[in-house]
Each structure stands twice: as structure tokens, then as C-alpha cells.
Design a protein that fits this description.
Layout (H helix, E strand, L loop, with lengths): L21 E5 L7 E6 L4 E2 L12 E7 L2 E6 L1 E2 L4 E2 L9 E6 L5 E5 L2 E14 L11 E5 L5 E6 L2 E2 L4 E5 L5 E5 L5 E3 L6 E11 L3 E5 L2 E5 L1 E12 L19
């Protein structure tokens, strides 16, 4: 069994144990992009009915040379489908700013937390400006990224790179938010990072204002490397969680 590859703990509110999950963007050849939820390195994609139903509203933006197109994704049985695909030079970013608040205990005190998942899909390694609150953007070279939080470089933060086989490698951003990885295989890589922002606030909810004590940001970036060694095959798909 592969181990979860990032530290943010999300209480999913279905009566089961806490799990480490993230969203990422997939795009098969000739098909539109899809936002997945689960654990990439474990070949786990959550479904509906199931944990996929916890999401509030997943929005995505296609950024191309002709401008930007923002839409609300359509939930399917195993992800959130988008009406577009990223072509060479394009970028897709996605996020859910309405994931339900959850409560967990810290030192015997209830903490009301906001889980804020986001994702980026890139088609090249040219340097890009940030678009998300917590963003991991290409820095101009293969395997080179810049971590940005609230439009400022985020130093000394762990970033994990993973392939579909479950292989992963960790590195920490430097004082300028830069982090680098070797990418020996061709195929899909997902880099991910999480930051807990212990700043209380209030957001607009469906029933009115909702107060929170902290925000747990979790962001991924997907890159399909066109050359390299033949990739290690992924393991069998992990079983999605079943609501109780």
C-alpha cells in the first residue's frame, strides 16, 4: 500500500477516519479536462455517491493566448468535468472555495476549519504568474517550481512530487519560494503542497455568514512530461470511500 503524500488532514464528515486527500486535474489525449478528488499516488479517485458529494462548487478557468474562460464544473460519477481541454501553451486552474467547514479538536478545543483545495494544469515549463491563493507555478525549467502564497513567495515549505506508480520525492522551497525536482520518467507528475493559515475570518455560506478559525489550503500542479524513461506502471485502483 502506498502512503498518503501530504500532511493536511481533512475531516470528511462521513463518520469514518480522517483522510489525506487533494484535487488534481487530469487530461487524457483527445478529451476534455477533469478535476479529480482523492489520492493521486494511490490511484484513488472518489466517486458520487460518496466523498465527491462533499464539494460545494468547483470552478475552473482556462487561460490561453486569447484570454480567460471561467466555468462551473459539472459533477460526474468520478470527478468534475470541464467543457474544455488545455492545448499547448494553455493553463487550467480550478478550486472549490465552498467546501463545507468542519470541526476538529486541538488541545481539547474545537477548531472550525475551512478546507480550500485548488489545482493547476500546465502544458509547459515557462515561468507563469500566480493565479490561486496558494499556487505552485512553473519557474522556467523542467522540475522547477515557485511556491506563492497570497502573492508572496512562500519559503521553507514542503512540496511533494508524485507519479501514478506512487513514487514520490519531497523538497522544501528556498527563501524565494523556489523548489526543484528531477523528473526521470515521461508521463504524468503531480506536485502538491499544503499550508495551514491560522487566521480566523468569515466567509459567505449558503445560509449566511460562516465563521472559521483557520484555513487549510491544498494545491496541486499537474504536468505531463513528453520525454524520459518508460514510466513505472500504476498500482491497482484504490477503492473509494463509501458513505455510512
Amino acid at each position: 500500500m502506498y502512503k498518503p503524500f501530504f500532511a493536511i488532514i481533512v475531516l470528511l464528515g462521513l463518520g469514518g477516519p480522517a483522510q489525506a486527500h487533494q484535487i488534481w486535474i487530469e487530461q487524457a489525449d483527445g478529451q476534455n479536462a477533469v478535476v479529480r478528488f482523492g489520492e493521486f499516488g494511490e490511484n484513488l479517485r472518489e466517486v458520487s455517491p460518496g466523498l465527491l458529494d462533499k464539494f460545494g462548487k468547483v470552478t475552473a478557468t482556462l487561460i490561453s493566448a486569447t484570454g480567460e474562460q471561467t466555468i462551473e464544473a459539472t459533477k460526474s460519477a468520478d470527478g468534475f468535468t470541464l467543457p474544455f481541454a488545455a492545448k499547448a501553451g494553455d493553463i487550467i486552474v480550478a478550486a472549490d472555495a465552498n467546501y463545507p467547514l468542519y470541526v476538529w479538536k486541538q488541545h481539547g478545543k474545537d477548531i472550525r476549519n475551512w478546507y480550500y483545495p485548488a489545482a493547476r494544469f500546465i502544458t509547459g515549463v515557462a515561468a507563469q504568474p500566480p493565479k490561486l491563493v496558494l499556487d505552485l507555478v512553473p519557474a522556467g525549467g523542467e522540475g522547477q517550481f515557485r511556491l506563492v502564497f497570497k502573492n508572496e513567495p512562500k519559503p521553507k515549505t514542503k512540496v511533494t512530487l508524485t507519479t501514478p506508480s506512487g513514487w514520490s520525492k519531497e523538497a522544501h522551497s528556498d527563501d524565494q519560494g523556489l523548489v526543484s525536482f528531477d523528473m526521470p520518467w515521461k508521463g504524468v507528475y503531480v506536485a502538491e503542497v499544503s499550508v495551514n493559515d491560522a487566521v480566523a475570518g468569515e466567509r459567505r455560506g449558503a445560509g449566511g455568514p460562516e465563521s472559521y478559525d483557520a484555513v487549510s489550503y491544498a494545491t496541486t500542479v499537474t504536468y505531463v512530461k513528453p520525454q524520459g524513461l518508460d514510466p513505472i506502471p500504476p498500482g491497482p485502483p484504490a477503492k473509494p470511500a463509501v458513505p455510512k
